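Quick one, T. Sequence first:
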Amino acid sequence: MMMCSRLRPPFPRLFSLRLLGTTVSRTEGVRNPNRLSATLAFEDPSAFRVKSLYELLRALSVFRLCSFPVLVNNCGKLMSIARTLLGRRGFSLLLRPTVYAQFVAGENESEISQSMEKMSLLGMRPMLAVPIEEDLGESTGEKRYDDNMEAMLECVRMSHSNAWSKDPMMQLKITALLSPELCAISFPGLDESEVTHFLYGLRRLNRIAEASVNKVRVLVDAEYTYMNPALTLVTMAMMKKFNKDGAWIWNTYQCYLKESRSLLLEALHLSNNEDFCLGVKLVRGAYMDKERKVAEKEDRLDPIHRCWEDTNDSYNGSLDVMLEAISQKPERYRIIIASHNEESVRRAAKRMEELGIDRDGGSVCFGQLLGMCDHVSLTLAKEGYAVYKSVPYGSVDNTLPYLVRRAQENRTVLQGIRKERDLLRQELYRRMRLKGRSS
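C-alpha cells:
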C-alpha cells in the first residue's frame, strides 16, 4: 500500500488500489491447491529424462564452470585470451559444443529449426532473440542499424513461417535500431541531425511492427534507467498504433527498480484511456551493479530496491495487479512471467487457479532463458502451462558479446543454480545405475 501517495488521478475500478496488495484473498476458484503445490515443487529429476546423456554432461559441466564467480566476472577477458591463443577456428571449435550449444539455438535456420522442433516436442515454445544491442559509446551508424533491422525482419519471418509455436514471440532491443546516446537525451534538446536519426529509427521500428502485427508478438526489452523513459515512450506509441485488436507490441517492466510498479500502473491506466491492448514482460532485472555505479557516480539516488526482499515484493505485487486485470479482461491484457524464481512461478500458478485463468488460454505465459532453469520450464510445460524459452541465435562471433553480457548480468542466477545441477546429477546417477543393472 506504500504506493498510494504516489498515484495520480483515480484509476477506473479495474485498477483500484486493492490491486496493489501482494496478499492472496480469493480462494473460491482453487481447483486443487494441494496438487498444484506438489507438482510445482520442482524437485523431480525425471523432468530431465528427455535429455540425452551428452546434454546432461554438457549442462553439468557448463553450470559447474558458472558456479565460480571469478570465471563469470572475467569471462569476456578469458574468452578474448582463448581466441588469441587458439585462433578464430580453434576458439569456435571449443565453444560450439559447450557454452554455445548450451545457450544458443544455432547459426542458421536449419540448425535453429532442429533445436526448436525438439523444444516444441517437449511442450515449450521459442521466443527468438537477435543478439544485437548497444550501450553509450557504441553507436555504429545508420548502415549498421539498417542491417540490424533486416536481421529482425528475418527473425519475424522465421518466427511466423515455422510451426514451432502456435503463438510466436520474439524479443527486440530498441538500441539495436536507435542510438543509445539519443535515448539518453531529453527530447526538447535534440539538434537537427539527432531529429533525423530519430525519425530513421522510428521508421525502422515501424517496419518491424508492420511486419509482425497479427503474426508475431514483439517483446521490447527494457535496458538502463538512463534510456528507459525514451524506450517506454517509443514502445507506448507503437502499442497505441498496433495494439488495437490484440497485444502485438509488449513492454518490459524491471521490478528491481523502485518505480517499476508505478510505471506498470500508469501503463494500465494509459492503455485503458487510449483504448489499446497491453502486453507486459515482467522481470526482476539484470543491470543492478551498473545502475548503482552510475547513480553513485552521478550523485543521485539509487534506483534499485535496497534488498532482494523488496524486489520480490515489487515483483509479486506487479504480478498480482496484472493477473487481476487479466481475470477481468483477458482479451485486453497479456503477461509473460519471465522468472527463474521458483516461488514466483508457484505463486503465479496458484493465483491463476484462484482467478480461474486458463493455463494455456493465451493471456498468461511463463518464460526462462534457453539452457537454464529447465527443471522449471519442463515441469510447467508438462502441467499444461504456456512456456517460452528466450532463444538467441547466430554465429559464435555474433553471439559472444551477447553471451558475455548476459552471463555478467545474470551471474547471481548462474552461481545459484545448485538445485538444477543436483537434479541433473540425480538423473545422471539414475541412468548409470540402470546401465549397471543391465550389463
